[in-house]
Amino acid sequence: MATDSFPGPEAINMLSHLSREHELLKKKNLEESFEWKRLYNEVTELKGNIRVFCRCRPLNEVENGIGLKKVVEFDSSQDTELQIISSDSSKKQFKFDHVFKPEDNQDAVFAQAKPFVTSVLDGYIVCIFAYGQTGSGKTFTMEGSPENRGVNYKTLEELFRISWERNDIIRYELSVSMLEVCNEKIKDLLVEHSNQTSKKLEIKQAADGILDFPGLFEARVHSTEELWELLKSGIRVGSVGSTSANELSSRSHCLLRVIVMRYDLVNEKTTKSHLWLVDLASRERVGKIDVEGERLEESQFINKSLSALEVAISALASKRGTPSSPSCCRVH
Ligand SMILES: Nc1ncnc2c1ncn2[C@@H]1O[C@H](COP(=O)(O)OP(=O)(O)OP(=O)(O)O)[C@@H](O)[C@H]1O
């Protein structure tokens, strides 16, 4: 009978010593990681819970073809300021947390959004949204294309990467929902993946203060590939129209919600956080853009909802609560 496959008393002693060492090392790593996390979130808060970035896209072929001139000037030594040149050649300066120039690519934009991913995985509620005039590049920035992925894809990829990296100490479960707000109606863009039929959705405030949409489908996702397939199907279902200013104009607010369930193996606590990635419909100067009938009504709804958003953001910025913006809602 072969006995050398059973460890002797010395080997058992050594194994238990190694196991104790491993436990101590794991505890030390955990303590360091929590300290790092605390400092990281302190820095994030100091930088401000609301950040505003401005991205200027390059002029396209049509705009160049008809000889349109650039009306934005950048200071090469400052990446937080730009100047708008008016028709009388006077200049007006605007300041942001960061300004992206026409030559800045999708990676440069994502580099600024990346730190928020860590915040979501640490239990914060984060919302990243693109706001701007029709054709200014909101969908390009958020969605991008398969060759030129935007903030949505890169953020979700990073979310998965960090959650796997932390697997030793924290277990994450990620689910996504995708919805569209068009003419003040909420549509579930992933309903075809559920066993339900499309139904009217409403916004409710849950007991914990977080906004919820009872009945909205939540798809559990395990990888970026799986998630991307889901998003593509949601995008197909979304509404697209056209204005004279942009041929493929988004006529609705498109919202992607990632629900992050976080189980902390150290303190055995479960927390839930949300990441919102939003491509807003564009505010339109109805008098200047050739819209009529149904499109005109849509534009009026869009403008009204964007005005409400402005009120909510101003209230958050001045740290006041408004009836429509729960004070627990934290926007980075
Ligand atoms: N940074 C950029 N670099 C190159 N092309 C860009 C950039 N931003 C936008 N574009 C191009 O400009 C066009 C309009 O962009 P996009 O559709 O993203 O605008 P939008 O703000 O979402 O418009 P709408 O609100 O009408 O839907 C698209 O063809 C897009 O590929």
From TrEMBL:
Name this protein carries in UniProt: Kinesin motor domain-containing protein
Binding site for ATP: 132-139
UniProt organism field: Tripterygium wilfordii
Keywords: ATP-binding, Motor protein, Nucleotide-binding
Domain Kinesin motor: 49-332
Single GO MF descriptor: ATP binding
Family: Belongs to the TRAFAC class myosin-kinesin ATPase superfamily. Kinesin family.
PANTHER family, sorted: KINESIN-LIKE PROTEIN KIN-14S, KINESIN-LIKE PROTEIN KLP-3
GO cellular component, one term: microtubule cytoskeleton
